[in-house]
């Protein structure tokens, strides 16, 4: 679930960077988890700025992400990484971005990951194929 101000905060971040003469490859925010009704929030995930070493061992970016249209169209999603398609995309986008492009982190929780028994957020064992796909993406 996106917060009511999620899109505004992303656009604001992009506009501030552009005002400073920067181009933005993608922007990501902090997140937390919530129950299926979206009433109880827990486990805030306050992320770091873009960090290759961390990203290669942990898909810490995950949700919420806004990416340059041209970049996502160029890269697309690859079926062989289903379950970790977001991780695969972020890894390739980080490598593909132009040298002048920025990767921005909005230091605000803009995404609430709803948890239920079959979600990887609540039960990592529910989708082991996603971990295998993520391993292949990192490799």
Task: Walk me through what this model shows.
- By secondary structure, the chain is an alpha+beta fold.
- Helices cover 36% and strands 24% of the residues.
- The chain has five helices and four strands; from the N terminus they run H-E-E-H-E-H-H-E-H.
- The chain has helices at 6-19, 52-57, 69-75, 85-96, 128-138; strands at residues 23-34, 41-45, 65-67, 101-114.
- Strands 1, 2, 3 and 4 form a four-stranded mixed β-sheet that branches.
- A hairpin with a 6-residue loop joins strand 1 (23-34) and strand 2.
- Helix 4 packs parallel to helix 5.
- The model has no long low-confidence stretch (mean pLDDT 88).
Notable traits:
139 residues, alpha+beta, 36% helix
Low-confidence stretches: none
**Major β-sheet profile:** 4 strands, mixed
Query: What oligomeric state do these chains adopt?
Result: single chain
Average pLDDT number: 88
SSE arrangement, N to C: HEEHEHHEH
Taking all Cα atoms into account, the compactness measure Rg is 15 Å
The overall strand count is 4
| Shape estimate | globular
Q: Helical stretch count? A: 5
**What is the distance, rounded to the nearest whole angstrom, between the alpha carbons of the first and last residues?**
30 Å
Strand content: 15-25%
What percentage of residues falls in helices of 4 or more residues? 25-40%
Output the structural class: alpha+beta
